[in-house]
Design brief:
Elements (H helix, E strand, L loop, with lengths): L2 H46 L7 H9 L8
Length: about 70
């Protein structure tokens, strides 16, 4: 094989690796989006049922907040 034959082969190998890497990244991003979608759908279903999902810190703030906005 001459060097002119090796260049297209090396280029094809390099491009194949790039495409494989991009595909892995896209699949990871797709899975992240699917996870976020499932979470959002679950939150919307809970909201439709009238169930709120407050984070513990938010709940603590709500409990600590005085009624009427004035602290005695």
């Amino acid at each position: 094989m001459s060097s002119s034959d090796l260049i297209p082969e090396a280029l094809a190998d390099a491009l194949g690796k790039i495409v494989a890497d991009c595909r892995r990244e896209w699949l990871a991003e797709l899975e992240q989006l699917r996870t976020e979608r499932r979470l959002l759908v679950a939150e919307l279903r809970l909201a439709a049922l009238g169930i709120t999902t407050e984070a513990p810190a938010d709940a603590a703030k709500a409990v600590a907040k005085p009624k009427g906005g004035v602290r005695a």
